Amino acid sequence: MKIISNMIEAHIFCKRKNGIEFLLLKRNEKEIYPGFWQMVTGKIRKGEKAYNTALREIKEETGLKPKRFWVVPNVNTFYSHEKNYISLLPVFAAEVEPDSKIIICKEHCEFGWFKPNEAKKLLAWPGQRKSVDIITEYCLKEISFWNFVELKPV
After folding, report:
1. For residue 46, what is the domain's CATH number?
2. What DSSP assignment string belongs to 1-20?
3. Which of 47, 107, 112, 38 is nearest to 76 (CA)?
4. pTM reported for the whole predicted model
């Protein structure tokens, strides 16, 4: 069995007066995991850095360009029984303006902004919910024992 890193997870959020909200996308009925709510995900292209994949996928799936962008100190995992590998997914966080115009791609049929607890109820996997908790703690306290690595979105 192989251990690979071939996908990313990017959580988009905005800050509002009453806290932060996460952007979730509902998967189209014709896609794998139809009807699931999720953050931005995507496959890493050969030779592409994971953070560049995250920025590319954010643009492709939402039309958004983050104003701030971080590496989250969490790596999500899953096992593919079909191909017999374990995949490690680096996690990223992207802050956008609350009034940003969202243009979803054909992979998704709907989007919504959700408070952290609402978002966690919609997300299917524990690692995704953990990422929401980590990002929320960092953003609300604006100090943390984790030093998020901030990257400059290009």
Report:
1. 3.90.79.10
2. -EEE--EEEEEEEEEETTEE
3. 38
4. 0.91
Average pLDDT over residues 5-27: 95
> What is the tens place of the pLDDT at every residue in 58-69?
999 999 999 999
Domain that holds residue 146: 2-151
Residue 145 scores a pLDDT above 60 = no
Pairwise CA distance, residues 38 & 11, whole Å: 9
DSSP state of 101: P
How many structural domains compose the chain?
Answer: 1
Instruction: For residue 130, give both structure tokens.
Output: 């953990």
Count of CB atoms within 10 A of residue 37's CB? 20
pLDDT at site 154: 66
Spatial separation of the C-alpha atoms in residues 140 and 116, rounded to whole Å:
11
What's the CA angle centered on 144, arms 91 and 100, to 5 degrees? 55
